[in-house]
Specification:
Blueprint lengths: L2 H5 L8 H13 L2 H8 L4 H9 L3 H8 L4 H10 L2 H10 L2 H10 L2 H10 L2 H10 L7 H4 L4 E5 L4 H11 L5 E8 L5 E6 H6 L6 H4 L7 E2 L4 H10 L4 E5 L5 E6 H19 L14 H28 L1 H6 L3 H29 L7 H29 L3 H31 L9 H27 L2
Parallel strand pairs: 1-2, 4-5
Antiparallel strand pairs: 2-3, 5-6
Helix pairs in contact: 3-5, 4-6, 8-10, 15-16, 17-22, 19-21, 19-22, 20-21, 21-22
């Protein structure tokens, strides 16, 4: 199905036979594919198309739409249909939607829901943004440790349609404390008279609601879990985080890190949703800061003006040298920020990595020095070739070490290592590169050659 065919739904002259055929084809589409197709339409067409879906399809498609499309539909559809949609959504998704709506509409929707749903929404809404509790859902399957397999199966069959996942069933005691878990496979293969407490696994991987989302995503990935239980400070089960929610967190964090490393952050907005004014305001602060930082590069050049005047050929290699130092620093910073984010590198590893980076940078610097020295020789100035070669080694080592150490320093200060942005690292490397290059040139020309 393509966009043109879907537009047939909006034509007043379309026959019922044509409409039925299109709707049948829409039912066969995966909700993700249908959501992608709907995103191609203007806002004015979204609601008419959305209204042609049945309730189950609406729920499956809605949470896959962009936040902007969701908000448009929520504000445009009949209020009774919005309430019904929210009631059918998964617990965590509907909380996200209600928090995005304006307060008046959100409160009106909550008041129109059943009491149990209102209480669940209000409870999930209390968790701070960025915590495990903020992305968990209360749609989990559980049984009591004293249940028999027969009782557990009966309970699971009754509640399964409303649960996010039933492949892992959590085992609670009479205080609602999480004491273990049992897989659906284990239950189905056990005798009906077996007791859950004899089948359950007590080695539980869990997070507290106050733990970070990143911690939850890390555990889900490390232990290959379908879902991760979330407990309160009293070890009581209050929700689960599913792997798809963790993937969303990983994607958001990776995007945020990339934005920070470019000295810009869009928050929850996508690039397409952000307006021109918003983009200017988000991008200009660091650029203004870097203007003043780069004044130091100019000051360094001015300080060594006598050296430059004595050998004007030095200027030819200046952009090349400071650019190489900045690029080396950006490489090191990118690798280190990502390693810290994934947990493959810890703070305690900084000294070992520093020694390793010195040798790596020296190797890279020597190769680049040989290359740039040959250019100097080709230009017919062997003295500048020596200066440029020595400077290249030092500049690359300096830039690499700045790029490697800055993320560690920021983490030590309890700041996000991703703010060791490429523009910041390259600006510092530029300043150092000018001083190193001109310092070596002054020393070599005035000391070695006299």
């Amino acid at each position: 199905m393509d966009k043109e065919k879907l537009l047939e739904l909006l034509k007043p002259q379309a026959s019922q036979e044509v409409l039925d055929t299109i709707k049948d084809e829409m039912i066969e589409l995966h909700p993700e594919s249908l959501a992608d197709l709907m995103q191609e339409f203007d806002d004015e067409h979204l609601l008419p198309i959305f209204n042609t879906l049945d309730t189950e399809q609406r729920v499956a498609v809605f949470y896959r739409l962009s936040e902007a499309a969701q908000l448009h539909l929520a504000k445009s559809m009949r209020f009774s249909r919005l309430v019904n949609l929210v009631a059918q959504m998964s617990h965590d998704d509907r909380v996200d939607l209600l928090q995005s709506l304006d307060d008046e509409l959100s409160e009106k929707v909550i008041r129109s829901l059943a009491k149990v749903e209102r209480e669940d929404i209000l409870r999930l809404s209390t968790f701070e943004e960025g915590t495990a509790g903020a992305i968990m859902t209360s749609d989990y399957a559980w049984v009591e440790e004293t249940n028999s397999v027969r009782e557990a199966i009966k309970k699971i069959k009754r509640e399964a349609p409303d649960k996010e996942t039933i492949y892992t069933i959590y085992v609670l005691n009479d205080q609602r404390e999480l004491v273990g878990f049992v897989t659906l496979r284990t239950i189905m293969l056990a005798s009906l008279n077996d007791r859950i407490e004899d089948l359950m696994t007590i080695d539980i991987i869990s997070v507290e609601a106050s733990d970070t989302q990143e911690r939850a995503a890390e555990l889900l990935s490390k232990y290959d879990l379908i879902a991760l239980p979330v407990i309160d400070s009293h070890k009581r089960l209050i929700g689960i985080i599913t792997f798809d929610d963790a993937l969303d967190v990983v994607e958001e964090e990776a995007t945020d890190d990339f934005h920070k490393m470019g000295s810009v952050s869009l928050g929850r907005m996508s690039l397409a949703e952000a307006g021109i004014g918003t983009m200017i305001l988000r991008r200009i602060p660091w650029l203004l800061i870097l203007i003043f930082m780069n004044l130091f590069s100019g000051a360094g050049i001015d300080f060594f003006s006598d050296t430059i005047q004595s050998r004007i050929g030095l200027l030819f290699f200046l952009p090349l040298l400071i650019g190489s130092g900045g690029n080396a620093g950006a490489q090191a910073a990118t690798l280190m920020v990502r390693a810290l984010a994934t947990g493959s590198v810890r703070m305690k590893d900084w000294l070992q990595l520093l020694g390793k980076e010195v040798f790596i940078a020296l190797g890279i610097g020597l190769i680049m020095a040989l290359t740039v020295s040959l250019i100097g020789v080709a230009k017919g100035d062997s003295e500048i070739a020596v200066i440029v070669g020595l400077s290249m080694v030092m500049v690359v080592v300096f830039g690499s070490l700045i790029g490697m150490l800055m993320p560690f320093g920021l983490q030590l200060l309890k700041l996000d290592p991703a703010t060791a942005s490429v523009p910041l690292v390259t600006s510092i490397a530029d300043i150092g590169g000018v001083v190193i290059y001109m310092g070596i040139a002054t020393w070599y020309l005035s000391v070695v050659l006299t």
